Amino acid sequence: MAEPRQYKELARQLNAIGIVKRDLARVLPSDCPPASAVVLTVLDRYGEMRMSKLAELLAIDMSVTSRHVAHVEARGWIDRYPDPLDGRSRLLRLNPGGKALLDQVSERYTEALATCLADWSDDDVGRLSELLSRLRGAFGDCRARNCRTPASGAAPAGVTAPAQGTPVAGGAPPVGATAPAGGTPAAPPPPVRPHTPRTQYS
């Protein structure tokens, strides 16, 4: 087990990750906030589903999920239609317009990362991805073991708690990985696909 001082430093570094996420959010299309990108990513990854399942995967309540779904539906990125197994329910499905937007989001994220990390080696980037995946898995294992966490959802010193109603991004394992036992996967960020970076993006 690491020394307490190392966990304190890690808490400070994780707090700084919020700055990175805010900078990445700036490259999104103006009508696609991060929450909308996460909703589309979940539908792309897991396929059509009911609203209740989407809320479960996002780890947010139904009212917040409904607002996010209304936003992406109003922009023509998803379709909503009756569930053939239960006419009272509706299924959500990513449509070609939403898929095209996700491809654009992925390209912008990839370009931003490639530009900011241009002086990183492949090994550095791979190691960071490996450690982040391991970190997510550790928290999933902790939930499965009912580990004690700060009461009332309070963030530890040096860590900024997310705003209420914000989808939990990055909680799911990457494609090909196994979800933590007993844990509900949260939505992954839009996938990053390799390409040749440009120096500017709009």
Automatic annotation (TrEMBL):
Lineage: superkingdom: Bacteria
Biased composition (Low complexity): 160-185
HTH marR-type domain: residues covered: 1-137
Pfam family, one: MarR
Region Disordered, annotated ranges: 149-202
PANTHER family attached to this UniProt entry: MARR-FAMILY TRANSCRIPTIONAL REGULATOR (PTHR33164:SF57), TRANSCRIPTIONAL REGULATOR, MARR FAMILY (PTHR33164)
Name of the protein in question: Winged helix-turn-helix transcriptional regulator
Organism name: Streptomyces pactum
Lineage start: Bacteria, Bacillati, Actinomycetota, Actinomycetes, Kitasatosporales
